[in-house]
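Input/output pair, single chain:
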Amino acid sequence: MAKGTTRPAQFDLAAELAKPNFTPGQRDVAALVELIVVGDEPAAARAAPALVRLGDAGHAAIDARFASSDAGAQ
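Output:
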């Protein structure tokens, strides 16, 4: 799969995060944020450090999620 492409529909990020050899990529940032927002444990607890490791891409995804939440609240 080419870098930056989306995952297949059947891909389960929460399950993959439980695997010690899985490393999420930039294509997963929005889904990682959603795992945290939903708050289901232990996926949310695994998603948070993965998002931090993605650096600027993780921060941008968090900012985008908050911006979309704020826009819907107005």
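The longest helix spans residues 56-73. Residues 51 and 58 are 5 Å apart (CA to CA).
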